[in-house]
Amino acid sequence: MSAVRTLSPPLAALLELTHRCPLQCPYCSNPLELERAKGELSTAEWMRVLDEASELGILQVHFSGGEPAVRRDLPDLVAHARKAGLYSNLITSGVTLDQPRLTKLAEAGLDHVQLSMQDVDHQTAAYIANYPGVQGKKLAFARAVREVGLPLTINAVINRHNITRVERMIDLAVSLGAGRVEVAHAQYYGWAIRNRAALMPTLAQVQEATGRVEAARERLRGQIVIDYVLPDYYARQPKACMGGWGRQFLNITPSGEVLPCHAAQTIPGLTFESVRHRPLADIWARSEAFETFRGTDWMPEPCRGCDQREVDWGGCRCQALAITGNAAATDPACALSSAHDALRALADTASSEPPPDFVYRRMSPQDSKAALATTTG
Ligand code: SF4
Ligand code: SF4
């Protein structure tokens, strides 16, 4: 039976409404080449995408970015998602939404909010986001989320600057009334790979943080769900990236290109199709980019003969490319990969030196000004 006939619909779609963002996190998963506002899908185009997503059988949409709230049509898109029967989650930096706008989103049918957090320490948070006063704004936003009655997840991105405060970040999430906290080490794609040396903790720091997360899980059982994502560079088996290429998720860029994962555009030779030119269901089922690494037929050894091949699906194609130069190689996070020792050596070298300055995530200065004007206007 062909892959197309046995293919299930994706569970969720990540909609990158825009790459504009007032923050400049050095681990941002957006591509180094950020898309400009003028190329973004229009309101009508995003509404059509939501309808197509629903028809395809997608259950959940994540409104993401950049900062999705810089789009003035966000309440209309949320309302349209609700009308289309989609569960909607807003992934936000929390610095641009005041209580009235948040209330409007809740009234439009928003189901859930996911707030990113740089640190509990205000000074370090401002340094990481390159945004003075960021933590105060996030705390106010988190309280507003709970006041309007929306469920909240805190997403804490761990790196060498905040790793000693992992427990305090979990406790902060509890005190803010979050139902879930994702403690995720920075994943080294996009801007994070550019900032690898500035972000990478040592193995000893990761081990200590892991112990603290496990202890917090015991201590806070029944109060909050704690998800923990280890850094691949210190792992022995890769994660099932996106639940497997083209199996559960799709990602749509601001201009409408449909990707199997947010970093897939780094892979040369793949052509990504746009919702502007082809129906979403057709892209999901038949486009070359989704078919290339779907399933297990593409796998080389040792993945091909490995009993874990339908557990981790060979790991991450973008990481294989970034480290080995070959997107079809076994993910070097796997101990069976011939590049595994080289990956660990990169982490050890990066984390043993004093951290260099961040290369902040930036559009051109002109675009950054436009993003802020839209935000505050
Ligand atoms: S990671 Fe930071 S810079 Fe990137 S979109 Fe999120 S808040 Fe903005
Ligand atoms: S060899 Fe491939 S399938 Fe097996 S554990 Fe490693 S990455 Fe996973």
Give structural notes.
The chain is an alpha/beta fold and 377 residues long. The chain has helices spanning 3-6, 43-56, 74-83, 99-108, 122-129, 134-147, 166-175, 190-194, 196-199, 203-219, 280-286, 288-292, 317-324, 340-352, 365-376; strands spanning 12-16, 60-64, 87-92, 112-117, 152-158, 180-185, 225-229, 249-252, 258-259. A hairpin with a 5-residue loop joins β8 and β9. α2 runs parallel beside α3. The model is unreliable at 1-5 and 365-377 (pLDDT under 50).
Outline of this structure?
Helices cover 37% and strands 12% of the residues. The chain contains 15 helices and 9 strands. Helix 2 runs parallel beside helix 3 (74-83).
What tags apply to this protein structure?
disordered C terminus; 15 helices; globular; binds iron/sulfur cluster; single chain; alpha/beta; 377 residues
Which percent range fits the helix content?
25-40%
Taking the alpha carbons of the first and last residues, their distance comes to 55 Å
Based on secondary structure, the structural category is: alpha/beta
Question: Which distinct ligands sit in these coordinates?
Answer: iron/sulfur cluster
User: Order of strands side by side in the largest beta sheet?
Assistant: 7-6-5-4-3-2-1-8-9
Low-confidence stretches: 1-5, 365-377
> How many strand segments?
9
How much strand content do the residues show?
Answer: 5-15%
* Average residue pLDDT: 93
Helical run tally: 15
Largest β sheet strand count, sense and barrel closure? 9 strands, mixed
Shape designation: globular
Rg measurement, Å: 20 Å
- SSE run: HEHEHEHEHHEHEHHHEEEHHHHH
